[in-house]
Design goal:
Layout lengths: L11 H12 L8 H15 L8 H7 L14 H20 L6 E3 L8 E3 L28 H17 L10 E2 L8 H6 L10 E5 L4 E6 L10 E2 L4 H6 L10 E6 L5 H16 L4 E5 L13 E4 L6 H6 L5 E6 L4 E6 L4 E3 L2 E2 L5 E16 L2 E10 L1 H12 L2 H13 L8 E11 L2 E14 L2
Parallel strand pairs: 4-8, 4-9, 9-15
Antiparallel strand pairs: 1-2, 3-8, 5-7, 6-7, 10-11, 11-12, 13-14, 14-15, 14-16, 16-17
Length: about 450
């Protein structure tokens, strides 16, 4: 839904002045892609061509996607638009507080609006793709750079998500909408109105960094290392001599895992079926019996996922030889390693989708679906892939070429995921293994 923002009467000079001050601000100083995004949409609107600002055009002209790319399978424009909205909010709240003309990008639109007073805009709801934080830290390596990455992941992740999604059981029912045949077939047992699906999220153990007194709820507080202070102050206020402390928590989700849940829930709602959402620490293994189940996270963070993937051909595992988490192919005796850019940061990671419709119960067959991967961006990519009609059509076609009639009873798919700033940009099929044909 497009957000309504009341625009002001502004001259071209006013608009260009607002754009120029935003582009030269400290807030946008290290955001080259967001500056390019903002400049493109503002200049397009100023010349009277705002109606041309579509997701596809922005993807091609700003993010340099190919002409034939599909925005439905590449969320990079939506991701950058989300970041840009929040960056503009920060700009006018913290730096250009007296700015006479402010630029606003309403939700649901890419056409900028100019206002003369800060509009009151409710917080953007958490929908895929959410774009707020860095997710769980990679395995601890021995270099100082790796340690900085670990501290950065701990700091930013713990500060934002908390227990918003995971502490309570949620049961919802939604009106039924048109269901794509490929989704209905791929989700078969889950697509029934009486499926009563249990969604369980892994909650990795984290160290959360904050002011020294923030652990005064019975949890022991540990002193933060010196590297934490400049990282904490990047986005958070901290007095000059105030100490930072660290506490352990398992109430935190990576953004990718959260988005994976959102993608799955949106599809479940289209089936007019009920579901329940719980963190794994509140959902014992015994509670999974007799239920259709969807699991979210990495085996290292989840007993349920670890046991589910124990005998499968593919799993997510730590590989000491490359000092990274990888997709391990037990049948082929090889590993799929995430790819890094020139700075040593992840550029491509991998998601792992596991679908098993073979569990027996008193009321018939039950489904277990696992969304996992390398970082929570991989988990997100696996969920986006399984909820995409186009992806399911293509996957069914792959199975049919192997002589199968539609989707097998149990299978795994590796999904290659491109991401930036720890956020999923796009995903694509990489490979698969069939576990049970019938």
């Amino acid at each position: 839904m497009t957000e309504t923002v009341q625009p002001a009467q502004c001259s071209e000079e006013d608009k260009r002045g607002a754009l120029d001050r935003a582009l030269r601000s400290r807030t946008f100083a290290r955001s080259d892609q967001l500056r390019a995004f903002l400049k493109f949409i503002c200049e397009t609107e100023i010349r009277g061509a705002g109606a041309e600002l579509t997701e596809h055009i922005i993807g091609v002209e700003v993010l340099h996607r190919p002409e034939n790319y599909f925005p439905s399978e590449d969320s990079s424009v939506r991701t950058r638009a989300y970041e840009l909205r929040h960056k503009l909010g920060k700009l006018y709240a913290e730096e250009l507080t007296a700015e006479p003309v402010q630029i606003v990008i309403p939700r649901g639109s890419y056409v900028p609006v100019y206002v003369r007073s800060k509009p009151v805009i409710e917080a953007e709801p958490v929908v895929a793709p959410a774009t707020v934080v860095v997710e769980e830290a990679a395995p601890v390596a021995t270099s100082s750079r790796s340690l900085r990455m670990v501290y950065a992941g701990v700091l930013v992740l713990g500060a934002v998500l908390g227990v918003a999604l995971t502490l309570a059981a949620v049961k919802l029912r939604a009106p039924q909408t048109a269901l794509h045949p490929a989704i209905a077939e791929a989700w078969r047992l889950l697509a029934r109105p009486d499926a009563n699906v249990l969604l369980v999220t892994a909650t990795p153990l984290h160290l959360v960094v904050g002011p020294g007194s923030h652990g005064a709820y019975g949890s022991p507080t540990y002193p933060a290392p010196p590297e934490a202070y400049p990282l904490f102050r990047q986005h958070r206020p901290l007095p000059a001599l105030a100490p930072l402390g660290m506490i352990f928590t398992d109430n935190v989700l990576g953004v990718g895992t959260m988005n994976a849940v959102v993608a799955a829930v949106n599809t479940l709602r289209s089936f007019n079926g009920s579901y329940q959402l719980l963190p794994e620490r509140a959902a014992t293994l015994a509670s999974l019996r007799g239920r259709n189940v969807m699991l979210f996270g990495a085996p290292v963070d989840s007993e349920a996922i670890s046991k589910t993937l124990q005998e499968t051909p593919l799993t997510v595992d730590y590989e000491a030889s490359v000092k990274e988490f990888v997709i391990r192919d037990r049948t082929a005796g090889r590993i799929i390693v995430p790819e890094k850019d020139a700075n040593g940061d992840f550029a491509d990671v991998y998601g792992l989708l596991t679908v098993d419709n073979t569990r027996d119960s008193e009321r018939g067959k039950l489904a277990t679906v696992v969304f996992s991967g390398i970082t929570s961006a991989g988990t997100h990519g696996a969920a986006e892939y399984f909820t995409s009609p186009r992806s399911m059509e293509r996957l069914r076609s792959i199975f049919e070429k192997e002589g199968l009639k539609g989707f097998p009873a149990a299978y795994q798919v590796v999904v290659k995921c491109k991401f930036s700033n720890m956020l999923l940009l796009s995903y694509e099929y990489h490979s698969h293994r069939v576990i049970h044909k019938e």
